[in-house]
Amino acid sequence: MEHPVIIIGAGLSGLRAATLLTAQGIDCKILDSRSRIGGRALSSLNPDEPELGKFDLGPTWFWPRYERTIAKLVQELHLETFDQHTEGAMLFERYDNQAPERHILPAHSLERSVRFTGGVQSLIDALARKLPSNLFELETRVTTIKLNDQRSIIISADLADGKTKDFMARAVILALPPRLVARDMTFIPTFSPEMNLNLTNKPTWMAGQAKAIVVYDDPFWRKDGLSGFASSWVGPLQEIHDASPHTGSGALFGFFGMLPKDRQQLGEKQVLEQVKEQLIRLFGSQAKKVRTILYKDWSVDLDTAISEDSIQLQNFPNYGEIPVVGEWENKIVFAGTETNSEFGGHLEGALQSAELAVSTIVNR
């Protein structure tokens, strides 16, 4: 019996790779260190108020005009989507102790983006439903990958109960951030210095960021002619968007201008107090009526970030394929959004990288 293809990483690229392999009758298995599937795709709700809806603490949008792979997949899976709300004025907070400026953006200045009803988790769940449940091995942290001979690879992993487990594979798809591969996994034989440098030089998308989502009874700012889009030089949120579900409650989410070390020094409670104060400054007294706040600091997630990810990115990272040469050629393939040159950092990039990885495996 031939060994399966082992996919390490149960995020979007890993799940898509698994559905493509199984559709071609190729046996595979997914290992992931987390206790859940989805990776950086994380749609969360307040368990005490589930009626408010799910909100994306990871990726949120896609752009169907340019991102054809995800647009096609959404149609195939019959997923419900809706357009991101952008109608109305934006706010610009230029100085502390000064009222925000109100600007009407030119028509068509914002490219149409689309969100998932029920969050990006609906895409993750739809892919998972196409796979047998015994294909997943969660809470399985890969530590060593050893080339046993020309036909097999031994993968060793630590389990949640403290035990270790070995898996046999004919090929491996590394569908997780390259920096995590370099930090957490030992390869026998070892990678070349050039390949290790390639891995560490690809910053993990969103790894230094945090996301705060503040939920209200309704999107009250729309009644004031505001889109929910705001930009701030004051902070703590640097960029704010309407995160409201298609119907029901209202929500605003923001990306932080505050550095990871500053967020950690303040602590989550104080950070979120500053977030609420900022939204009141921008959107008025109605922003005081908060139903719940969801928060995820990716920089302290050990399954996402390494210490180098706490450094603020100055430019868009140089993403692209990671060529494998030497003894590991034809045995290991990289996938994940950081390995896509055109759509790196996007859901589209994760999907395209999965398609390329599977094509590579099949052709070999």
Automatic annotation (TrEMBL):
PANTHER family listed in its UniProt record: AMINE OXIDASE, AMINE OXIDASE [FLAVIN-CONTAINING] B
Lineage: Bacteria, Bacillati, Bacillota, Bacilli, Bacillales
Gene3D superfamilies in alphabetical order: FAD/NAD(P)-binding domain
SUPFAM superfamilies for this protein: FAD-linked reductases, C-terminal domain (SSF54373), FAD/NAD(P)-binding domain (SSF51905)
One Pfam family per UniProt: NAD_binding_8
InterPro entries, sorted: Amino_oxidase (IPR002937), FAD/NAD-bd_sf (IPR036188), Flavin_MAO (IPR050703)
Domain Amine oxidase residues, every copy: 111-361
Source organism, top-level taxon: Bacteria
Family named by the database record: Belongs to the flavin monoamine oxidase family.
Name used for this protein in its record: NAD(P)-binding protein
Organism this protein belongs to: Paenibacillus taichungensis
